[in-house]
Structures are given as structure tokens and as C-alpha cells.
Here is the input.
Amino acid sequence: MRCIRIFAEQKWLIDDFEVAQARPRAAPHQSGKGRAQSPDKPPRCLSEVAQAGHLCYECTTRLATRRALPHFTRMTDPADMRREYTQAGLSEENALADPIAQFRLWFEQALAAQLVEPNAMTLSTVDAYGAPDSRTVLLKAYDERGFVFFTNYHSAKAGQIEKNPRVSLQFPWLGLERQVKIRGAAEKISTKDSLKYFLSRPRGSQLGAWVSHQSTVISNRSILEMKLAEMKRKFGDGEIPLPDFWGGYRVVPALIEFWQGRPSRLHDRLQYSQNDVGEWQIERLAP
Ligand SMILES: Cc1cc2nc3c(=O)[nH]c(=O)nc-3n(C[C@H](O)[C@H](O)[C@H](O)COP(=O)(O)O)c2cc1C
Here is the structure.
């Protein structure tokens, strides 16, 4: 919060960060505490993340935009943007027989590569008219039974799943030139399992679940702030109960496709599907 406010008032924070970055071991955006603030020495970002050597969200966005700007002004036409995918291949010989094991391997590699939000996945559903709808949700568990995410059971996606449980998931691990696509059916997990996860969440997230009537129209942000204050008063320091409108879904996979980018657009696509006796078989798809 602090960083955002200061940035709005003092436009040179980003320059300051870049200078600090260029100096080895200099801590960017240090707290101003104990440091004389001369008029030509701008105050630094005081947010906690900044003190850990990073910019806050607001500054990061502005910095990224500014750094990207020369690039974009040189090349504004997406048709000119192309890149060869050369990092790896995926062959029938190397692919693991069990798609969950193969997913685990790639997921671990996405973590090791420090991709941003490697557990973020696009969940696609269809509405009552058959029109598709997509949004990002976070994978919170997976095993041979399927892939679990948590959400509001009164949300748009939940209403769509209620009418048509067929969904797809997609992990865009672009830093590794990979994607994983999963098609299957979503089912609610048990209240016990939802509770277990809910209790593991930070208190702020638990309160957030109570505050937001996800996917409904609200007149302004203050509605949320007021509701949050109300919930804080209501629950005090006590345990926050699991809302009956919040919990997990498990996507039980019927098809899992692993996609690895290759040169000349001759990508590797291996699709796992279950045969009549529940065994997974692998087929190669044309890219
Ligand atoms: C990185 C990221 C992670 C998200 N994770 C979740 C999540 O785990 N659960 C969730 O309900 N919404 C999550 N959202 C918000 C959803 O994308 C979406 O806005 C919200 O669930 C409402 O979707 P709906 O109106 O289609 O139901 C996330 C969004 C982003 C960008």
C-alpha cells in the first residue's frame, strides 16, 4: 500500500530501483528510517516486498511496462513476433506410462524453473447455451483421482458446472515451451476435505471467502471493504468457519495432453486416454 501511495506522489521511484539494481548487493527501496532524506534523494519504497529486495506490485507493473516500451515501439505487429521452440522434446520412449506421474514430473520442472504461478491453470466451462467461458484458478492438489481447485459454489463457474460438469484445464507453462491440457468432469470434493484446506488458508483468505459473492455485480469496491470489516467484527479472534458456499472441485481426467514446443512448429503432442478397462494409452497427435 505504502509503495503504491509513494509512487503516485514521487514518480522517480522506478529510476531509483534500477540504479539500486545495477549496484551489486545494494538493497533497493530500503526503508528511509535512519537515512537523511535530502531533496535530491527521493524516499524509497517502504513496502515489505521492497525491503526484501523486490518492487511492490504497482512498481513492478510500471517498471515492466517501461522496460517493454522500446521493444513494443520497435515491433508492434504481433504477426512479426515469432520464436523457435528448442528447449526439449517429448517422445513415446521417454514419456511415463502414467499421466499423473508425467504431470508430476513436468509440474516439478515448472517449479524448478521458477515459472510464475506454475499451479495457475485455465478452467473452461460451458454455460447453459453451450457458450464457453474461461478463467484462471489455482491447482491445490492432484493425484490419480484428479486435479483439485477451490472456489465459490455460487459463482458463475459453479453454476455452469452444476448444469454441465464437463470442463477443461490448461496449464500454460510457456517458460518451458509447454502446455498441459486436461479434459474431464468436475465434481465437488467432500466438505471434510474442503474444510481441511480452508483451515490451512491464511486468515485474510478465509475472511475473503465470506466477503465475496463471487461473480455478482457490485456497485463499488467499498462494498467489499465494508463487508470485510463486518466479518472481522463477527468472527473476532475466533476460528473462521467454512462458508457453506465455498469448497473444492476435483476434475476427474478423461484425456490429458502434454505439449512440447519443437522447431519448425513440429511440436510434440502426446495424448493419454483411458481404454475400456481403465488403462491409460498414449497416442501422438499432429501439431
Ligand atoms: C492467478 C489467478 C488465480 C486465481 N485463482 C482462483 C482460484 O483458485 N479460485 C477462484 O475461484 N478464482 C480464482 N481466480 C479468479 C478467477 O479467475 C475468476 O475471476 C473468479 O473465479 C470468478 O470466475 P467466474 O465468474 O467465471 O466464476 C484467480 C485468478 C487469477 C488471475
Observations:
- The chain has nine helices and nine strands.
- Residues 211 and 226 are 9 Å apart (CA to CA).
- The chain has two domains: 2-78, 99-284.
- The longest strand covers residues 246-260.
